[in-house]
Every structure is written in C-alpha cells, then in structure tokens.
Amino acid sequence: MKQANEMWGVRIVGVVLAALLLAGVCVGQKVKPTGIKGKVRVDESSTAEGVAVSVRQAEHEVARAETDRNGRFEITNLAPGRYALVFRKPGLKTAEVRDVEISANKVRSLGDRVFMPVDEGALALLKGSVFSAAGRSLAGAAVELARVMPDGTAQKIDGRITNELGEFSFRLLPTAARYRITAKFGSLAPAVKEIDIEGPSVYRVGLSLGESAP
User: Fold this and answer.
1) CB atoms within 10 A of CB 31
2) From 23, 44, 139, 214, which residue has the greatest number of CB atoms within 10 Å?
3) Phi, psi torsion values for 131, nearest 5 degrees
4) What is 35-116's CATH superfamily?
5) pTM score of the predicted model
6) Which residues fall within 8 angstroms of residue 30, CB to CB, at 6 or more apart?
7) Three-class SS string for 37-59?
8) Strand ranges (DSSP E) for the chain?
9) Exposed, middle or buried by CB within 10 Å (0-12, 13-18, 19+), for 26?
10) CATH 2.60.40.180 boundaries in the chain
11) CATH class of the structural domain 123-208
C-alpha cells in the first residue's frame, strides 16, 4: 500500500512539473501582433500629423488611429482578413486604400504609398492689399505670415511679395487659428494686423504702412 502511494505521489509530481514546464514555454513565446502600418505623405503646405486613419470591413469601422508628427501610424489587434483604409484630415483630399489583406501574426506595411493633396475647395484663402500712408497701392512690399501660438508667440510660416496691384494671397488650412500679417516696404513704418481663421472661406485684410522715419 505504501509503495502504491509513493508511485501515485511520483506521478502527481511528474504531472505538476510537466504543467509548469508547458506554462513556462507558453510564457516564453511571444505572440506576434496582427495589423497594419504605414506612412502618410501630404502636400508640402500641410503637415502629416493628425491624419485620421479608419480601418473598415464592409460598411463597418473596426479600428481607428491618428498619424504621428512624421505621418506614421500602426494599428494592431486586427483579425486576419481583407480591409479598406480611409484617411481624412481637414483641408486635404480624402485618400483610400482598398482590399488590403492582413495575415495572422503579421503587421502589413503600406510603406509611404498614401498621398493626400490639398483640397482646394476646403481651404481658407487669405487675400490682402498693402497701401502707403497716402492710400496708394504698393507693389513689391514684403508680406510675412505668422501663426499666433497659444502662448502669444508668433511662428513664421510663409512670405509673399505684393504684385503690381499691391495684392497678396495665402492658402491656409481651414482649422481654427489666429494669424499675424506683417507688411514692410523700404523705410516706411511696417503695418501689422491679426486675423482669425475659422473655416473654409475667403478672408480679406488691408495694411497701410506709416510714413518714413525722419
């Protein structure tokens, strides 16, 4: 009887050791993710950060992400299958990649094949004119456009030279923001104005330079 109990004890210990060994093997094995990644390219007048990436099957959205400051994205925990990806950002044309097959335990890379050009119909157009103190249009005036940041500092983003009619224009994304326009011409006192962009529309501004310093 004693010998039988000892044999049962040995068998139980063996089963426990085998279970622990199997658990250790499972823990040691890394489960590879299933998903998709890529890089979005945009028009040089825009930024690739903040593009909304929607992963869809049929008419249903199954996952969503946003691109980082370099336009990169990665979405995991997807089931193997075929998907469509839709890319959206205000001011840019929507892009779509269809019939993307994702295999189990693999992250499918789209590379940088996704390009989003500017949507001309969804832009904010800033138009303006530069005048002398006497009210005459100034051709050849330098116009600087800066974005006013939340802390009050200004970040220059573009520049223009007025045409023969003293006019200039900038194409801007329709996202809400404040801009500072500075006009300079020779020894005349510069003119500065700020304007709020609130959506796609045409915004107009006039800048009158001061008299020359004595």
Assistant:
1) 7
2) 139
3) -125, 155
4) Immunoglobulins (2.60.40.10)
5) 0.56
6) none
7) EEEEEECCCCCCCCCEEEEEECC
8) 35-42, 52-57, 60-66, 72-75, 81-88, 95-102, 107-109, 114-116, 124-131, 142-148, 154-161, 167-172, 177-184, 191-197, 202-208
9) exposed
10) 123-208
11) mainly beta
Q: Which two tokens stand for residue 104?
A: 């189990």
Residue range(s) in the chain whose domain bears CATH number 2.60.40.10: 35-116
Does residue 209 contact residue 132 with C-beta atoms inside 8 Å?
Answer: yes
**Type of residue found at 19:** A
The one-digit pLDDT tens for each residue of the chain (214 residues) are 555 555 545 455 454 445 544 544 444 456 678 999 999 999 876 789 999 999 999 889 999 999 999 999 999 999 999 999 999 998 889 999 999 999 999 999 999 999 999 887 778 899 999 999 999 999 999 999 999 999 989 999 999 999 999 999 998 888 889 999 999 999 999 999 999 999 888 999 999 998 875 5
Give CA–CA dist 61/152, Å, rounded: 39
C-alpha dihedral, 16 to 18 to 23 to 29, nearest 10°: 170
